[in-house]
Amino acid sequence: MYTSTAAQGLIYGGGVESESAQLQRVANRLGIAHSTGYPLHTMLGYLAARMAEGLGENPYTAITYTSSVAAAIGLAFFFLAARQVGNVVSALGATALLAVSDTLWHTATITETQALHFACMAAIWWGILAHIQQPQRFWPLAIIALGAGVGLANHRTIVFSIGAAGIVVLWRGAWRAWSWKRWIALGVLLFIPLLSYGYLFIRAQDPHVVYSTRPTWFPAQMSNEVVIDLIRGTLQSGEGLEGNLVFPRDDAPQRLEFVYGNLSADIGKWWLIIGGAGWLFIGIKRPSVLIGGAMMALAWIIFLMSWRLDWKAVIYQHALLLLMALGWAAFFDLPRYAFPNVRHKLHLWGMLIFSVPLFIGTRWTYAQHLEARDLSSDRFGDRLYAQLDALPPNAIFQSGGWTPDAFIALEYLDDSGRMDVLPMGADSAEGVASRAQTSDRPIIIGPFLRGFFGLYSGSLFFQERGLSFSGTGGPDLFQLRPYDDLRLTTEADAATVLDISITPEVTLYSYILEPRPDYFVLTLYWRAESAPMPHYSVFTHLRAYGVACDESTLQGLISQDDSSGTVRNMHPTTVWHSGEIVKDTYFIPRPPALPQGAAIVVGMTLNGERIGQWCTPALN
């Protein structure tokens, strides 16, 4: 389920997925991730990427699959843990419902360190519950120690689970009889995974190691001191986590409601209630487990209340869902808890009957989450990567800095070997506007920055500062330039000049038609004859004619670019200046075979009424 719905290729997304492209880039090139470094995740991702390349598959998809595999392993550990508090059927049902929860499913289908974190927590809880059952055995303690070690080498919030394990083990008291050999063995199992942090110090010696928001040809500024700060919690930008973690003193009720709301939105409030009731059953038979679970839940709730990156908080709540799922396994084993002396055959019927709601809930939750969690058809990251190949020489690619499109652009630059393009972050829209007004280099705006500045909602921030958007070689990238940029006039003169009137205020001055295997790239150079003017819409059609452009022989529409606004709605005609040249690009899908009379038709409409058009044969 996870691999079939996992994101393919480079991941572009906001919120939870905003760091996926960075983790993919770091793993693909053996780089150094943001704090706390995540060495195990990086090395496992690198191994998966190289195996995929050997098989002719996409390395970025393979890196994402490591999350899918880690989550699946975590579910196997969870099932073993759930068997300690419930019967085999209730444990299986709880595992299935946990698997389709929104948080865990999402974690398993993107590149994210939390999948391995979940596996470590599930392993620790398996060890905790197995130790309660068999305190004289060593292997449950070994599972706890190894899970804690791997967890510390991956994500330090594992300490919330380690604390729960410590309470349970101390309560049970079997540790009093441990030999010194057992203590040493546990220390070794805990310590060995921590050696993976040595990877960070080794890679820091490479002057071109991938880290932060720089291409590999830009010298890295890494050192052992920086690595130590990174492991301790300082981000690569030099900032710490202080601003992200704020203890909820004055806003505790609101923050608690925030945590509860996220959990309810994920799995539903009734499943939260059932999970809590199940923990009461566990506590009656095993008070130490209840105390350990309560300690872990409290720690995570406080953490989630304190964590102020709300857009990312949901990725951490799988820890609470894991605890809830243990409660489900116990709750739906009610006959065994309520009637422990009843005959085995009745227990069997009880297992089958009482666990039915779990499987119904799993089916319903799966259907509820499938559309949002199926990321397999999302190819936007790879689509953006392909568009970057059309960046003009010496361009500045303006992104938000620590953003998905920035990391995708860096991968493109390193793969292509281009050193003329400069990737730059932006702290403010004013800074971008100032750069576009003064720089003699092309300023290319990425999609994340447009969304960050609210440009998708029709903001005219840049136009109000004498700037305009121009189309580029891709539908998701735009050039920002002064509206009276003389270089644009030179471009328009170098194209095929038409100089024909489309509306009373707009002339189609020139064009470039570039056929590609899957689509036509049509670049139009409009000229505003007067201003202000109405809000004109544009249509760009590929039509079938008996004789190209002869309206009397029109046979129908073949395809069209769905964008109806000039410069893909980023630079509407209502803000054009008189005499301004506007570069507008369209991408019209083309079928494998075109009829002889196929033609490209371009025109403008006003309030749905066609004002004027121009036609050219598509097969010229």
Radius of gyration: 30 Å
In quaternary terms, these chains amount to single chain
User: Uncertain segments of ≥5 residues (pLDDT<50)?
Assistant: none
Q: First CA to last CA: what distance?
A: 48 Å
Shape: elongated
Strands in their spatial order, largest beta sheet: 2-1-3-5-4
The main pleated sheet reads as: 5 strands, mixed
Strand content: 5-15%
Show the helix and strand layout:
Layout: H1 2-5, H2 20-28, H3 39-54, H4 59-82, H5 88-99, H6 102-108, H7 114-133, H8 139-152, H9 159-172, H10 180-191, H11 198-203, H12 224-232, H13 252-267, H14 269-285, H15 287-306, H16 310-313, H17 318-331, H18 334-338, H19 344-354, H20 356-373, H21 380-387, E1 396-398, H22 404-416, E2 422-424, H23 429-438, E3 443-445, H24 447-452, E4 467-471, E5 478-482, H25 486-494, E6 496-503, E7 506-515, E8 519-528, E9 537-545, E10 554-560, E11 581-589, E12 599-606, E13 609-617
Parallel strand pairs: 1-2, 1-3
Antiparallel strand pairs: 3-5, 4-5, 6-7, 7-8, 8-11, 9-10, 9-12, 12-13
Describe this structure in words.
With 620 residues, the protein is α+β, with helices and mostly antiparallel strands. It has 25 helices and 13 strands. It has helices spanning 2-5, 20-28, 39-54, 59-82, 88-99, 102-108, 114-133, 139-152, 159-172, 180-191, 198-203, 224-232, 252-267, 269-285, 287-306, 310-313, 318-331, 334-338, 344-354, 356-373, 380-387, 404-416, 429-438, 447-452, 486-494, and strands at 396-398, 422-424, 443-445, 467-471, 478-482, 496-503, 506-515, 519-528, 537-545, 554-560, 581-589, 599-606, 609-617. The protein has a five-stranded mixed sheet. A four-stranded antiparallel sheet has the order 6-7-8-11, with helices on one face. Strands 10-9-12-13 form a four-stranded antiparallel sheet, with no helix packed on it. Strand 12 and strand 13 (609-617) form a beta hairpin. The radius of gyration is 30 Å and the shape is elongated. The model has no long low-confidence stretch (mean pLDDT 90).
